[in-house]
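User: What would this chain look like folded?
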Amino acid sequence: MTEPTLAKSGTAWPHAAPPLASLPPPKLIAGRIPETEPYVAGINRASAAAWWGSLAVFTTLMWIWLITYTLISTDSSNQLPIMLWPALISSGMTFFLWYVAVSGGPHLAVNPYGIWIRARKRPVKAVFLPWETIGRIYVRRAGLADRALCVEPRDPRAASGLGAFAAFDQKMQQWLTGAKLTASVKFADRPEQEIIGAVSHFSAGRVWIG
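Assistant: Here's the prediction, encoded as structure tokens.
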């Protein structure tokens, strides 16, 4: 298949969609987003590593400085156990989030039937939503550095029942972006406008985008 790119206008999709008859019926839940879909977007590992790696190093160095300063200024090691656990947890969590961001395969895929998107980050659980079941798709800032493609199902129960970690992550995403199902476009291995163009093309007017 020809490499998907946007036309110069940034809105048109230059490649025809595969006929529906040529695609297998979609599954609703999978452990990994299929990489055989007509359009697939993953994470740009270099960009993600630059951001999360910098944050992880900064967090670790901050705690090293804070612990060292406390030991020198108080001349006592009594504070060390109190500070060590928060330091290990926060630094470990940052490295864990870095790992989650770059592992587990694609974060988004679309075809003429609908859209694949992650519903749980780790271990990965992806859900397939037919276009007709989606109320709105939009892009919004997520956190300090990310921008996310946000998918709002018409049924708020969609992608539920995948465990406590999935429920927590979805609530966090909803708090940040207004939608519980999101995929990064800031750190994606495809340009943001290309992703929006692919979603617009394959949804063929069945979803409100914007």
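Confidence is low (pLDDT under 50) at residues 1-12, 20-27. If you want, I can go into more detail on any region.
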